[in-house]
Specification:
The protein is mostly helical. 51% of the residues lie in helices and 11% in strands. It has 15 helices and eight strands. Helix 8 runs antiparallel to helix 10.
Amino acid sequence: MAVYKEPNANTWRVVYRYNDVQGNPKQTTKRGFATKREAVAWEREQMNKREAKMDMTFESFVEIYTADMKNRIKEHTWCTKTNILEKRILPFFGKRKMCDIQAKDVIAWQNEMIKHRDENGKPYAPTYLKTLHNQLSAVFNHAEKYYGLRENPARKAGNMGKDRTREMLFWTQDEYKRFAEAIMDKPLSYYAFEMLYWCGIREGELLALTPEDIDFEQGTVRINKSYQRLNRRDVITEPKTPKSNRTIQMPDFLVEEMQDYIQRLYKIDPKSRLFDITKSYLYREMKRGATAAGVKKIRVHDLRHSHISLLIQLGYSAVAIADRVGHESIDITYRYAHLFPSTQKDMAKSLANLRKEEQKNVS
């Protein structure tokens, strides 16, 4: 690499020569530096990045992290990660050298995030604070595992925030019935919420459904994809987890409702989306219907909780429920443990009967 003074301008340029990952010689030029010192600093930073030295800046390492990870993560997940890095992390750590960032610096950043208030004086939610820390730690973990960073300062500093703070809300069957009646004036909304409540599917799974996903003879709906709206584009991805790929048996009345709905969509293509709407549409309709019905406000995702609570009320096991709703682990289903009926008395009674049988055999 070399630094040159521009002949007809009071600026400096750097000619940067290097070999790519396949050993092919490459060259790039960077112009417009106000001073030679700035040009040399940029040149040194490129060398640090190329050699993956930990005295590169945090923002330079984020470029490496991006190149390594972007194609390994779902697009919508990467968009969330990028937004957090650019808005919440890089402004604080961007210009600092990776090797110089210590746990105390992470703690100082955490305090800034905890103290933050928006224009309405509202702080970040505890779950969001935890997400912020996890994203920062992921970058340092990558540097530690693959590029020789001595230790992850975010791990040493400890986490902030909490996993879950929101109460698990749901509607009873009666509350949902009142809501459904309130939104019947819009068939699109009505049928969409019927699928969400009676099948327990996720919003993205609903919005990705096509006519060919529904088997009217068997009365089933196939879940094998998810919909996201990213950068003004409709994006269809794989479901959230491998277990999310599943086939759900629909109640007979819902099969009939979906037949009626599809007939309304005159000659719809078998591969077209059944519900050509967005998540924001669902949020607005949820709010409108809840207000009109006079029921408590819950999130669209809480309809999934409502479905699970209904299945628990009907006496189905955690294993059966996990299979229907696509939980990756039964441990997720057991988060609803407080809704399962207590069997302590039955257990005690069975144990007492067992003891009586034992004593009877002895005598």
